[in-house]
Amino acid sequence: MTAPDVILEVQDLHVRFPIYGGIIPRKKSEVRAVDGVSLTLHRGKTIGLVGESGCGKTTVGRAIVNILRAMNYRVDIEGKVLYHHADGVVDLLSLGQRQMRKYRSDLQMVFQDPYSSLNPRMTVGAIIEEPLRIHTKQSKAERKERVRWLLEKVRLSPAHAARYPHEFSGGQRQRIGIARALATNPKIVIADEPVSALDVSIQAQVINLMQDLQEEFGLSYIFVSHDLSVVRHISDYICVMSRGKIVEAGPADDVYSRPQHEYTQTLLAAVPRPDPDRRIKRRA
Fold this sequence. Notes:
Elements: E1 6-21, E2 26-42, E3 46-50, H1 57-64, H2 68-71, E4 76-85, E5 88-91, H3 97-104, E6 107-110, H4 124-135, H5 140-153, H6 170-182, E7 188-192, H7 200-217, E8 220-225, H8 228-234, E9 237-242, E10 245-251, H9 252-257, H10 262-269, H11 276-283
Parallel strand pairs: 3-8, 3-9, 6-7, 7-8
Antiparallel strand pairs: 1-2, 1-4, 4-5, 9-10
């Protein structure tokens, strides 16, 4: 029996991308991007999905929001993504694009690159307003007011709505991306490497903002990253991925301080650690 605070379950997820070749294209082989991943997300909590580039963590996030088939119609997906909606439990992977639209506003993504994820030809206001125009029946005045409110929530000025993305820094653009993701009052936010393209000082600001918004709105996060130290600060539970599989999972502090799997230990060893004594000795 499922706990009442569970909002999402991923069960035995497999994602394979076929490789075709020859004059008459035929399937030659396949890439197993995700190979039997299972995880459970609780309401108001954060799962950190961590691993090196190419391990399949981004593919898991895209499978959850059910956009993989739109990106590659030949992709082979097996397993279940069970969303615990107020009307009942629904397997998102079984839904077509039209059926998925009912749930699309409940699951949103914050993308990795704040420079390419925002349309340079649209104003910031239009970018944030677009999900409202598609998924709600709000009037134009209501949407404009919502945009102003969202900009304030991500600590930007409502006056920024008339500007274009190129006028903002990377950190500010990522705040715009977060505001767009929050526009439709989502229940779950998939954050795909949301701070990896940012300076360290700006990373902390964005993570703190996400934590504040989670506390205020009761959001549930799946935070995808290659940096275990970043994931630790925002996550309640950590899943470590390698070659399409979860090799270790547990409470964030346990995984960080007492890693069991050799791959997790390798990831931790790659985290830079300040050593003041060593610096003093060099200067001496």
